[in-house]
Amino acid sequence: MALRAQPTAGAGGQRGGAGGAGMAVPLRLLPLCALLLLPLPGAPRRPPRCGPPCSCWRESALCVGAAGAPRGLPAGLGSLSLVNGTFAEVKDRMFSHLPSLQLLLLNSNSFTVIRDDAFAGLFHLEYLFIEGNKIETISRNAFRGLRDLTHLSLANNHLKALPRDVFSDLDSLIELDLRGNKFECDCKAKWLFLWLKMTNSTVSDVLCIGPAEYQDKKLNDVTSFDYECTTTDFVVHQILPYQSVSVDTFNSKNDVFVAIAQPSMENCMVLEWDHIEMNFRSYDNITGQSIVGCKAILVGDQVFVVVAQLFGGSHIYKYDESWTKFVKFQDIEVSRISKPNDIELFEIDNEMFFVIADSSKAGLSTVYKWNNKGFYSYQSLHEWFRDTDAEFLDIDGKSHLILSSRSQVPIILQWNKASKKFVPHSEIPNMEDVLAVKSFRMQDDLYITLTRFIGDSRVMKWNSKQFVEIQALPSRGAMTLQPFSFKNNYYLALGSDYTFSQIYQWDGEKKIFRLFKEIYVQAPRSFTAVSTDRRDFFFASSFKGNTQIFEHIIIDLSL
Ligand SMILES: *[C@@H]1O[C@H](CO)[C@@H](O)[C@H](O)[C@H]1NC(C)=O
Ligand SMILES: *[C@@H]1O[C@H](CO)[C@@H](O)[C@H](O)[C@H]1NC(C)=O
Ligand SMILES: *[C@@H]1O[C@H](CO)[C@@H](O)[C@H](O)[C@H]1NC(C)=O
């Protein structure tokens, strides 16, 4: 780059007296090379206090091979050149003892880093040339405070990326030179791409070294950045200091609630999202005895909670507007239910049902139906199978239930429209010891997950005739394999009683779930996704430890 000073129209006018009292000619009107390398005509030679490695003239100094910022220079110095220096980095406030500098040239040195506030205190700096060094890293606030800077060159360094908003303080910038660097034109450069489009400064071409498709092209010509330059994470949001076995969420009147079954406290605890405190707080407690499940049911604007208990029968509570709490609504006919293990809610032809899977030897998994007054038993499904889970799903427009049992492979029942009952349809062969089946949809395809305690849990896909395995996930004490999604990110949470629980994320390119994160939950029994106030949460219930609430966050990678 040619070191030619240019008339700094506009940006220069307001700085009265910048350059020191003795400056005869405004610095910005002189050819810079003269200022840097040659004594000014008629200026006195080398004031005595300026010694090696520097040569000084009245307004300028040139230091060759300095090991740091030279000391003992005239405080009113207008320009300083440091060349062939041996210092490894430009430290913070490195030149603050020279507050009159209008020009600073740091060429052909060997430093690799420029730290935050490197040029702090240089309120009058207009020209900053940092060329032909080995800079790889520039801190985000390196150029902080340089509001008068008009010319900045970082040419011929080893820069591959610049931190976001690194130029944001440079209000007067007219020219920026980035030649001789090759940038990674990936997410990290997205901000620079956008900044180039809006800045009023003249900027040299910014060339790319990668990704491969953009090698030796200009950043300006990049047409898209991968994956929108974001990733996601789960971070702990709130810890509830009690155990839980089931978590269910429901919306009522624009508020979000969560019902948690707490066996040790004999409670079905209802939490409410607090829009002000931004956390979940206690709303009501439904007390019971050996509660194993709390399931919310919304019928019109009425809110019910089915409370499944191991002893004393199971009951339905209803939210009472006038008492602002849940009150007992009805008992569930218990002759058929002795060991409830799962409650599943569903709707067929606008009618509301739920099914309780019963895991006792003598139990009968039973479907209950809403008849406008209450829920009454509608159909007993099958005897003696020790069902652990029931899943309702729509397969090709038809309603089905999949029952998982301790005694056999999962069976599929189909809703018969004429008899309005479920009838046996098929089974999922060769899948013994499945504790639970969950279904989910992704891009119009139907999938199920099969939880197995030890061995491999499975992910299967419906191929219009049957479910076919697409992935096996090694399970080490798994009681739950829960699919869930937030904002087009699809996940599976695989619980483990013996090690960390694992969250898998769907990889749309490879078409498999990939291990994404491990979380520690003691004896996890269920995972539940809850969304509110445009925030997404993930409840991890624990049979032996605290109940944890994670927040699903999106991280911008274009930094
Ligand atoms: C720069 O420094 C190196 C050693 O540090 C030396 O060999 C070289 O001659 C110097 N170059 C100039 C132009 O002074
Ligand atoms: C560029 O100049 C225009 C016109 O003077 C001004 O409105 C705009 O704010 C400037 N943009 C920036 C980023 O400084
Ligand atoms: C519910 O029970 C928990 C634990 O016993 C208690 O901390 C909380 O205050 C109770 N909430 C209400 C609304 O009574």
List its salient traits.
single chain, 559 residues, mainly beta, Leucine-rich repeat, LRR (right-handed beta-alpha superhelix), eight-stranded mixed β-sheet, four-stranded antiparallel β-sheet, disordered N terminus, binds 2-acetamido-2-deoxy-beta-D-glucopyranose, signal, Leu-rich_rpt
SSE diagram, text form:
Elements: H1 32-37, E1 54-56, E2 60-64, E3 79-83, E4 89-90, E5 103-107, E6 113-114, E7 127-129, E8 137-138, E9 151-153, E10 175-177, E11 182-184, H2 190-198, E12 202-203, E13 207-210, E14 230-240, E15 246-252, E16 255-262, E17 267-274, E18 279-287, E19 291-299, E20 302-309, E21 315-320, E22 325-331, E23 340-348, E24 351-358, E25 364-370, E26 375-383, E27 387-395, E28 398-405, E29 411-416, E30 421-427, E31 434-442, E32 445-452, E33 454-462, E34 467-476, E35 481-486, E36 489-494, E37 501-507, E38 512-519, E39 524-532, E40 535-542, E41 547-556
Parallel strand pairs: 2-3, 3-5, 4-6, 5-7, 6-8, 7-9, 9-10, 10-12, 11-13
Antiparallel strand pairs: 1-2, 14-41, 15-16, 16-17, 17-18, 19-20, 20-21, 21-22, 23-24, 24-25, 25-26, 27-28, 28-29, 29-30, 31-32, 32-33, 33-34, 35-36, 36-37, 37-38, 39-40, 40-41
The protein binds 2-acetamido-2-deoxy-beta-D-glucopyranose (NAG) (3 copies).
The site of one 2-acetamido-2-deoxy-beta-D-glucopyranose has 3 residues, from loops.
